[in-house]
Amino acid sequence: MNKLAMAQHAGFSRFVYNYGLALYQQVMDIKGGVTKKISAIRFRLRNTRHQKVD
Known about the structure:
Elements: H1 2-28, H2 34-50
Helix pairs in contact: 1-2
């Protein structure tokens, strides 16, 4: 049972890392300063959090 739980946590950690890396790469393409990039990240995370899964 512990092996299964550890595998699930490792899979979720990899998903979060890949999601963050993709978000970082998208933000680096935005022209402008740090404030504009931070606003883009907040917008993306806010919209992701409020979406309902069917």
